Amino acid sequence: VEFGHEVNDALMRFFEQCTRFVQEVDKNQSAVIDVQKFKQGPEMMRVQEKIAEHLGVPSSFITYDLAEAAFFLCTYEFAVKAINSPWCQLFDEDDAKIIEYASDLREFWKRGYGHDINSKSSCILFHDLFSRLDKAANENKLRQQVSEAVTVQIGHADTLLPLLTLLGFFKDTVPLTSTNYASQTQRSFRTSHMMPYAANFLLVLYDCGEGGIRLQPLLNEKPLTFPGLTDQQVSVPLYEDVRKHYRDLINGCDFETECQLFNNPAEV
């Protein structure tokens, strides 16, 4: 079955269109300085030393890039072919957690909570999402046929993570840094859980009769609870309450304004 579709990179690849994000984060090495520091830190150095010991080579031979490449070969073969690759023998569970943290650290500073513009770059998708929900909810209230019962939008992890961040999901009390790996073992921001292969984020409207119109968020088919609405009886709060919770973003969060690159007054 073929379905009509359109390519809208301005909407689904907003991160390429947001000048401020591109200049201040994506092309700015200092924006991810914590990632570089962690790669050169004691935890990663120990991983590299253990690999060198396992292979019987000088530790100077094993760089972070080589260790990461070996780990990816291990994980890809396991994920794609369901085999325990020989590459996996170079790592134990502690090593895997350290490399996972390095990856999470990069996503935190590059697409997540590390910089405000990371999430604000998704304002255009946020507004598109709520405009579709508003339209369906209003049509339902007026007892009209819902004109767009299902909308499927396809993007990348780079599309999904800023939106999840803008909505406030998986936000830890303490930011991820290069020096607090040991205290972040129970962190919420764990991209392997948030964005596995074929990650998907669903927002489902329900007409509950006298119970009102309600909205349920699901990530990878698992129900979520909207941040700040934890006092709701279930993970399906009233749509009106969700809109109130995000009213500042709904009334603001202008993509053009947020993504405008302001010159430093000293440089003008």
From TrEMBL:
InterPro entries: His_Pase_clade-2 (IPR000560), His_PPase_superfam (IPR029033). The keyword S-adenosyl-L-methionine does not apply. Gene3D superfamilies: Phosphoglycerate mutase-like. It holds the Pfam family His_Phos_2. This is Multiple inositol polyphosphate phosphatase 1. PANTHER family: MULTIPLE INOSITOL POLYPHOSPHATE PHOSPHATASE 1 (PTHR20963:SF41), MULTIPLE INOSITOL POLYPHOSPHATE PHOSPHATASE-RELATED (PTHR20963). Keywords: Hydrolase. It comes from Goodea atripinnis. The keyword Hydrolase applies.
